[in-house]
What we know:
With 496 residues, the protein is α/β, with parallel strands linked by helices. The chain has helices spanning 6-12, 16-22, 37-49, 64-67, 80-84, 103-116, 128-131, 141-156, 172-178, 184-201, 214-217, 219-223, 235-259, 282-295, 297-305, 310-316, 325-331, 381-393, 420-438, 482-492; strands spanning 57-61, 121-125, 160-166, 207-212, 265-270, 275-277, 337-341, 347-351, 358-361, 398-403, 443-449, 468-470, 477-479. The chain has one domain (6-13, 56-492): Alpha-Beta Barrel (TIM Barrel), CATH 3.20.20.
Amino acid sequence: MESKNKNSRRDFLKIGGSAAIGLPAMQLIGCNNQVTALEKKELSQNDSIRKFPDNFIWGTATAAYQVEGAVNEDGRGVSIWDTYSKIPGKIKNNDTGDVACDMYHRYKEDVQLMKSIHAGAYRFSVSWPRVFSNATGTPNPKGLDFYNRLIDELLANGITPYATLYHWDLPQILQDKYGGWQSKETSKAFAEYAAYVTEKISDRVKHYFTLNEFYSFTDLSYGLGQLAPGLKLPQKAVAQVRHNAVLAHGMGLQAMRQVTKSTLEIGVAENIVTAVPIIETQENIEAAKKATRELNAGLLTVMMEGKYTDNYLNSLGPDAPDFTEEELKLIAEPLDFVGINVYLANKYVLAANNETGYELISHAKNHPTMASPWHLVSPECLYWAPRLVKELWNPKEIYITENGCGATDELSDEGQIMDTDRVMFIKNYLTQLHRATNEGIPVKGYFHWSLMDNFEWIFGYGIRFGLFYMDYKTLERTPKLSPEYFKTIARDNILV
């Protein structure tokens, strides 16, 4: 589908303020654009200093329930988010993902949006209930057909597909039958689903994330009751939910490797709990490393090490999950890369003379935030998260699988969205990511969250994370200022 915004997008890029961001540096210095040989040399040297590694991946990301819509079409089954979003009062303004961005029908238009900003990769999620209407058993061919069309469209436009196999939209039937992630039966069902999808699309898709943001769909969903299915279970049950989730990852990864007929790269996308040394002394850095390992003990740490830390198990006592050594081996199935979703420094850290070796420092009450109240501004997290992952577990490659910020973007009378807050956010955070890659930390790519405004879970359509503005009445997509900034970086692979 051809974009309805072709003219508005072209007109937008003529705006003086935004156009300046996209101008080559040669046009921004010197009198009357007359650049001396010395200035040219300095520019070349600066570009070299600010360059990201060769073949660095610049991409955008979305999730199925947040963008696809078409929840009742072509045999798609019901997910826990379909159910949860229809409970009055659970979602802001009682919004649902029934239509969302209607990407199910407009995916060709959206691929052109990616292409327009030089995004070389797209991280999308496959909707489990769209592919298996009843979670297991007979697959739904029309559901898989959509992803085949999307993948083919991406490849035809030079965009590499990165598939996430689970982004929270659990089939409702598994919640009803087994209590969802409370049961290892759900872990087994995920492995079957993951193997089927991989077998069908691995001729074209070579990069996979098993599950996305474990803490969100375990603790926030089954412990704090903030996300679907909205349960508040006892600590023992929540610990078991965590274990069943990482077990699904290990079982799925093994099953995927057994069915593929080509070389794949498979990893995980986890919202790592990031601990940042409040002052960069060697003692505080070591303390932050210890804190990062323990703060992620029930999820990322066990996936990377194949064991639960002693402190984790001791802290749970009789509420520790039931597991076997064989399960731990499955959970620690070697990864080709580690994906981390990084938005903020969850905790600041000081070295301490105590049992743990560290002290966690909470953010000050007046610490600045973005539009989302949880989103404490802390650009340094995009340096420390990958650095500490590298130092703790030494993965082959690291991806920043999500990074971005919500805002209350509004259209001006001229039809423009000057999201200077998002440009500021990207610029400052990528400065810290560049610091990491410049030090040799093996960050392979960066996926901006999100391509376009979409259904933001319990916040409904009230918070906007997109590079492209979504009119939820007309479903028209309009570029903001931020995609021009993203495009400039992605096109030249240089921090500007």
